Amino acid sequence: MRLDPSDPAAPQLTYCLNIHPGESWSDARKNVERHALPVRAATAPDRPFGMGLRLSRRAADEWRALPDTTRRDQVAAWRRDGLYVFTLNGFPYGAFHGRPVKENVYAPDWNRDERRDYTLALAEALADFLPADEPLGTISTVPLGFRPRMSQPRDIRSACVRLAHIVRQLRRLEQERGARIVLALEPEPGCVLETTDLTIACWNERLLPGVRRELLDAGGWTGSEAEAAARAHLGLCLDTCHFAVLGEDPAAALRAFRAAGIAVPKIQLSAALRLAGGPDAAERLRAFEEPVYLHQTTAWKDGRRVGYWHDLPAACASGIAADEWRVHFHVPLDWAGDIALGSTAAGLTPDFWRAARETPHVEVETYTFDVLPPSLRAGGVDESVIRELRWAREKLERARA
């Protein structure tokens, strides 16, 4: 939903439909009917509701295989229901629910053609979805790759080749169809793009120059045109949970990225699990151990990070003494917790919300609903999403005052 329907520059707020299981195009369509429609009725009955759709590689290919008339009819049917799509989650390539995903969520990474081809399929689909009066679309994607699997300089060079190809195709879509689509890489703990400083250094010293060089080598553009195209079609998606796990302030990260000339067209609103240290810390954290997702964990003592683990079980078994634990486990934004166990949502300060209002796309992303402890699933998934959207909307509207 656009926060101010009368202002085309106002940010759009939605939720990511990756919270709903499903890998086929039929699954995606049914999730819109079963979930997005009632969410829209509860949160934006007076205005069109923009969706954050998640399409797997299979679903994207199935969409492209449909006849043109079928695709147009589907988009028109959504518009009649007050729905449209302005952003896609292009991070998980394959199955994302009900089976172990863990570090395979980053595969294929950006030195593989499969990631390039999947992203192109998503871009073509998003060009179909975008309304004529909503020319900006975003696709969030993996932060180049998981660092243990993508640590060599040649890996970054390989990624630049594929990203340059994406930039060329996104520029083509803009020229042919009027859809300006930005690919937003999403920094995450343990990945090539991770902290604010590492992301800025990699972006300005390796990624942007590498993409620019590849565009020039392909011919047809001047140096300034190549750089302008790269900056127009590549940016970042800032996930607030990821930065909280790393002990960083999302508002400061946003300011730093913008000061470095890096676009941030999309924010994913999410909260990390936070636990005050104590003798029962490991026991309380084990309640959140589960076999599907990767839960990067950090430990803190006296304001310093004293431990990092790629997954929660290793952290629980470490025996380390800490004042605080932070876990990449998306918990509902409106969950208050207790005096010891809660979330990092309180760290989203008024300064952050003011900065978020300058970001075109803001998306609630608590995809872990099915693996949350039962006490955090009260009311069902739709009610949880509705509460989170209302919580986020109130924060954003208050920041305007």
Explain what you see.
The protein is of the alpha/beta class and 401 residues long. It has one domain (12-270, 349-400): Alpha-Beta Barrel (TIM Barrel). The protein is 43% helix and 18% strand. The protein has helices spanning 25-43, 57-65, 68-80, 113-129, 153-177, 196-218, 223-233, 240-245, 250-259, 281-286, 312-316, 350-356, 381-400, and strands spanning 12-15, 49-54, 83-89, 136-141, 180-185, 234-239, 266-269, 271-276, 297-301, 304-309, 324-331, 341-343, 361-364. The strands form two sheets. It has an eight-stranded parallel β-sheet with strand order 1-13-7-6-5-4-3-2. A five-stranded antiparallel β-sheet has the order 10-9-11-8-12. α4 (113-129) links the parallel β3 (83-89) and β4. α2 (57-65) crosses α4, α6 packs across α7 and α12 packs across α13 (381-400). The radius of gyration is 20 Å and the shape is globular. It starts with 11 loop residues before the first strand and ends with a helix. The relative contact order is 0.12.
List the SSEs and their pairings.
Blueprint: E1 12-15, H1 25-43, E2 49-54, H2 57-65, H3 68-80, E3 83-89, H4 113-129, E4 136-141, H5 153-177, E5 180-185, H6 196-218, H7 223-233, E6 234-239, H8 240-245, H9 250-259, E7 266-269, E8 271-276, H10 281-286, E9 297-301, E10 304-309, H11 312-316, E11 324-331, E12 341-343, H12 350-356, E13 361-364, H13 381-400
